[in-house]
Write a structure and sequence with these properties.
Alpha-Beta Plaits; alpha+beta; Rossmann fold; 3 domains; 545 residues; 31 strands; seven-stranded mixed sheet; binds guanosine-5',3'-tetraphosphate
């Protein structure tokens, strides 16, 4: 009898585990919301969490947001960043899907982290302020999505305010973000004349009532046919006629929406709404869980990894320093690419060739963290780290591989970094080294004199580095200005041309942390000239090529 039970377990449990793994993977939607500051990312996140039942009162996420009033006080921002660890990943369940939202820090704390978070998501929602159109931060982040063919859904927000003409806005999106769009909903007016949206995806008219601001749902009317007099009844004859004209135009301009093209990152469906008014959010979420991809295969230096493989693989994409100076511990954010992550199981830390175990891995749920026993591909686990991890580190069940596509991005702000306390030079070197491993900024050493240059993507990082060097490592640094435009990694098969370039541009040549050649262009013009004069040299704006 016992033997029978044992045999049954042997036969059925692996099967069950396989089934569970497949189902768990297929129901995961891991994404990031990107937006220019103030477009409504926090508000949308919060509304999604409310719809998912993960939070019950508005304000939970907002209270963790870096307050605008504090932007000049980086220590305050760092303190708040400590709090916001828990909002780095927010998860909720919706219609059977497990949705993981990864936060992309914006505002003054815009850093490489923001870019790198996009390497850990399977899709993205871009929020655009309907009155402002495309702004610079969105453009920069979209470049990373394009590089990775990440599927993108757009949400045009703040339709309760006077907005740009929607056709003009869509044209601007296509031109500025270099992606084809397809409106799956369409707004009826904006600002004081905003009546609602026509949801082309579900053939529904959603009506906007200003007095209904606090309602969870906008009123929806099913429309069988666009000629239906129901439309006139609810939005008025004039607006109805205008809507019909515009919908006809849409049919003529935009080819039929194909989910496949969205999944390849070739076309982006567009929704209109107003996050603060709960308007258009449910429709966005319904479509998102239906069409957004579950975890996709990942590329490594050895082979492609399917998320459905039973053995665990994954990588660290972000490291968050704990701000308590008495504890030098950090949280490393681990993205699971395949298999099941289990608490207390030994995994191989590939770079260090050693076994590591985690007794209290954190899962993130809405606004709180909790210890988790197992997690699946698409999930992010927070691992307590005492200095073992660098960005890009891999954990496996023994296989030696490294994930591709976790590059460093070309910084745009540069300063010389100097030692301000000669007795502490060792501490300074160690501090800089560790902060660079965390991905706070990048360090370049000039070939000509060995001087060190720090490159960041956000201004605040310089202050953060100086503060942390002093408070965590007891070292002092000072900065000196240097006029540079961009750092480009260079490579060529034409050795003669490469050597000639390095010789001529020697004062602008540096090496990065891994000893690779980097050209520090001082202006767009000098970069352009270099590209024209040395056609056999490739200039890269990310460290991975
Ligand atoms: P962010 O995370 O992208 O920076 O934007 P956030 O959600 O904080 O929104 C920025 C401002 O825009 C907030 O106002 C928010 O209430 C407002 N907002 C968001 N969605 C809409 C919308 O659909 N319509 C309108 N009219 N406003 C919207 P705030 O005054 O800066 O903050 P708060 O005092 O309202 O919290």
């Amino acid at each position: 009898m016992l033997l029978n039970i044992y045999l049954c377990c042997l036969i059925f449990f692996p099967q069950k585990q396989k089934m569970d793994l497949k189902q768990e993977i297929e129901r995961r939607r891991t994404f990031a919301i990107i937006a220019h500051p103030d477009a409504g990312k926090t508000t949308l996140t919060e509304k999604l969490l409310l719809f998912g039942g993960a939070i019950h009162t508005a304000g939970a996420v907002k209270s963790n947001k870096i307050k605008k009033s504090a932007t000049s006080d980086f220590m305050e921002i760092e303190r708040q960043r400590g709090i916001s660890v828990s909002t780095s990943v927010m998860a909720f369940e919706y219609k059977g899907a497990k949705v993981n939202i990864l936060d992309t820090p914006g505002h003054e704390d815009f850093a490489e982290d923001t870019y790198r978070t996009l390497t850990a998501v399977d899709s993205v929602i871009i929020v655009i302020d309907g009155a402002k159109g495309i702004e610079v931060q969105t453009r920069r982040l979209m470049e990373v999505c394009r590089m990775r063919n990440t599927p993108v859904i757009m949400f045009i927000n703040k339709l309760d305010r006077e907005s740009m003409d929607s056709f003009e806005l869509l044209n601007e999106i296509e031109k500025e973000l270099k992606i084809n769009v397809h409106p799956l909903s369409w707004n009826i007016g904006s600002g004081s004349s905003f009546k609602g949206v026509y949801n082309r995806y579900e053939n529904k008219l959603q009506l906007f009532f200003t007095e209904d601001r606090q309602r969870d749902e906008s009123k929806s009317i099913e429309i069988s046919n666009l000629t239906s007099s129901e439309i006139d009844k609810y939005v008025g004859e004039k607006a109805a006629a205008h809507l019909r004209e515009e919908l006809e135009l849409i049919e003529a301009i935009y080819p039929v929406f194909e989910t496949d093209k969205y999944l390849k990152g070739e076309v982006s469906p567009v929704f209109f709404g107003s996050a603060v008014n709960n308007f258009g959010i449910r429709e966005l979420l319904n479509c998102f869980v239906e069409i957004a991809p579950h975890p996709r295969p990942s590329v490594t230096n050895v082979r492609e990894i399917s998320p459905f493989e039973p053995k665990l693989t994954g990588f660290i994409f972000k490291i968050h320093a704990n701000l308590d100076p008495n504890h030098r511990d950090r949280i490393a954010f681990f993205k699971i690419c395949s298999g099941v992550f289990e608490r207390n199981k030994a995994y191989t830390h590939v770079r260090l060739s050693k076994q590591v175990k985690f007794s209290s891995p954190n899962a993130f749920l809405a606004d709180k963290k909790s210890i988790v026993d197992e997690s699946f591909p698409g999930d992010i686990v927070g691992l307590h780290d005492t200095g073992n991890f660098k960005i890009g580190d891999t954990l496996t069940e023994g296989e030696k591989l490294n994930f591709k596509g976790i590059p460093s991005f070309s910084p745009e702000l540069f300063r010389y970094i100097e030692n301000a306390d000669p007795i502490k030079s060792k501490q300074l070197a160690k501090g800089i080294d560790q902060l660079m491993d965390e991905g706070v900024a990048q360090l370049f050493s000039l070939k000509v004199n060995g001087r060190k240059v720090i490159g960041c993507v956000g201004m605040l990082q310089f202050d953060v580095i100086q503060y942390r060097l002093e408070h965590e490592y007891g070292a002092k640094c000072r900065y000196e200005g240097i006029q540079l435009y961009k750092a480009c990694w260079i490579e060529s098969d034409n050795k003669e041309q490469l050597d000639d370039f390095i010789k001529r541009k020697y004062t602008y040549m540096a090496i990065d942390k891994h000893g690779r050649n980097v050209f520090l262009a001082d202006s767009p013009y000098s970069l352009q000239m270099a590209q024209e004069k040395f056609p056999d040299i490739c200039f890269y704006f990310t460290s991975e090529f």
